[in-house]
Structures are given as C-alpha cells and as structure tokens.
Write a structure and sequence with these properties.
The chain is an alpha+beta fold. The protein has helices at 20-29, 69-86, 117-124, 227-231, 241-254, 267-278; strands spanning 2-8, 11-17, 44-51, 53-58, 61-67, 92-102, 105-110, 129-132, 135-139, 144-147, 152-155, 171-174, 180-184, 200-210, 218-221, 259-264. Strands 1-2-3-4-5 form a 5-stranded mixed sheet, with helices on one face. It has a 5-stranded mixed β-barrel with strand order 6-7-14-10-9, surrounded by 4 helices. Strands 11-13-12 form a 3-stranded antiparallel sheet. Helix 3 (117-124) crosses helix 6.
Length: 281
C-alpha cells in the first residue's frame, strides 16, 4: 500500500493506494501539495482499493465503490474543496476562479466548471505569471486574491494548445459526464508562475464564455445589475449566496475593480486581447 499526504490550507489528507500506477499519477498531478510524511493529525485518511474500478474507504468504512479513475479524482478534489470552504473567514470570498498576474495586479477569471477559465488563464499566463486554478480566495479587507496549490484542469479538447506536455502522466478527472480534463501541476505547463499562497492585489474580474463557433473575441464591461447571474454559478464557499454577492459588490465598488465578460472561440486571440488591456497596468 502506497500513501501520499497532501496539504490544502492546513487540512492534511493521507491517501493510501492499492494501485501503484494510480498513486504515481496522483502524486504527479498534486506535486505542489505533497508534503513529507507527518505524525500530525490527519483530517481525512482515505484508502483506495481496486484496479480499474475503485472503492474508497474513510477510517476503514466503505464510502463508495465502483468508481472509475475519473470519478474517483472528482470525489477527492471535492473533498479538497470542502476543506478549503470550511476554512474561509468572514472577510473572505471563495470562488471557482483561475488567476494570472498581468503587470502588478491579478486578473481573476471567474466561472463555473466548463466556462473556459482554466484554459484561458493558462494562455494568458504567456503574457504574465500564473497564480492558480479552481479555487480563488478573495480577501475583501485588503483587496487581494490567493490560491492553494491545486493542479490546473486542462480539458481533453484543449490539449493541442500545449504541445510538449505528456498528459497521459497525469490524472484524468471526469466531471460526471459534462467534460473530462487532466489535472496538471502548474509548473509543468506554465513557465511563469507566482508562489502559491502568495496574496496579490486584484486588478480586474473577468467572466469567460467559450464559444465553440468561429466568432470574434468580444470583451465588454459588465454592469453591476448583471453581476449576480454571472456570480451565482461560481460560488464555492459556505457563505449564503446573498451575503457573498453583497460582499463581492462592496469589494469591487470600494476598490474600483472593473468587471468584464469575454466571449471567445480562439483562446490565443482572447489571451492577447487581455494582455493588451491589462499587462501594462
């Protein structure tokens, strides 16, 4: 049995694998969160048994069986997300978002799973530095954002945008039939990164919308009246939606943080447009 310990905002997870190959892919995908073995109290001790079809045990008790690798990955990442959400303070907002440093400030790409935020932020990092993916924590008191060392999700349909990366080395996550993606450490796919857990001042919020057609890239300012409908699907914390929206609106209003939507079909073109808009700020 091979074990790996991961730290997500102080919550330590020990994953024990009966499959060596699966353990290796987990360790590669979550390389930035792996910690040395510790005797500290473990929040979750998860045993994973089987080969091809997996069963998960917590504290020796079966919690789920008949899982594919993709669904197992999804279940475990949700455990990580729950640990993050439970640690959010009153002055923080947790959102599904990816962030990139452009100039001296962070651009946060906010959106539900499948909106295109991860791919677009990776492409945009070619003009800046990558901050993180999946869960962004906004501090409404000091106007900063930071990320835990979570791997970036690259959809199977976007792998051609990143030549030279051997995606077969990493975990595949199945978002319950909606789409599949690979979980890749940021350093393996982007050469310009900022240290995880390093707060950065927020310069703009961008809600991406990938259009599978051949339309041109359209970047528009979002009026405050339209903000709730864009923000609701992106909420990742335990705050009541009405409270989070109120805090978020106050955050962007007090600090004059602009909010945009970007509709695009060509990610490289969209990233270049964003760089022209924000890189020199």
């Amino acid at each position: 049995m091979q074990s790996i310990e991961l730290d997500m905002r102080g919550s330590v997870f020990r994953l024990c694998f009966g499959s060596v190959s699966l353990a290796s892919r987990f360790e590669r995908s979550f390389a930035d969160a792996v910690i040395a073995s510790s005797d500290d109290w473990l929040d979750v001790d998860l045993d994973i048994a089987g080969k091809g079809s997996y069963a998960a045990f917590i504290g020796g008790e079966l919690v789920e069986e008949g899982l594919t690798e993709g669904l197992l990955s999804l279940r475990i990442t949700r455990l990580f997300g729950e640990a993050l959400r439970s640690s959010i303070s009153a002055e923080e907002c947790s959102l599904h978002a990816s962030s990139v440093m452009m100039g001296a400030r962070a651009i946060c790409f906010v959106g539900k799973s499948g909106a295109g935020k991860s791919t677009l932020s990776l492409l945009a990092s070619r003009y800046g530095r990558y901050l993180g993916d999946e869960y962004a924590v906004l501090n409404t008191r000091d106007g900063s954002v930071y990320h835990e060392p979570y791997p970036v999700q690259v959809k199977t349909g976007s792998v051609d945008l990143f030549p030279g990366v051997d995606f077969s080395r990493y975990l595949m996550l199945d978002n319950e039939g909606a789409f599949s993606s690979y979980l890749v450490p940021v350093a393996d796919i982007s050469s310009e990164i900022v240290s995880f857990r390093s707060p950065a001042p927020v310069g703009a919020i961008v809600f991406p919308c990938f259009d599978g057609g051949s339309g041109e890239t359209v970047l528009r300012k979002l009026p405050l009246s339209a903000l709730p409908q864009h923000l609701l699907p992106s909420i990742a914390g335990r705050k009541a939606p009405a409270t989070l929206i109120r805090d978020f609106v106050r955050f962007i209003s007090d600090r004059r943080v602009p909010v945009y939507t970007i509709k695009y079909s060509d990610g490289s073109d969209a990233a270049m447009r964003l760089a022209k808009k924000f890189a020199d700020r």
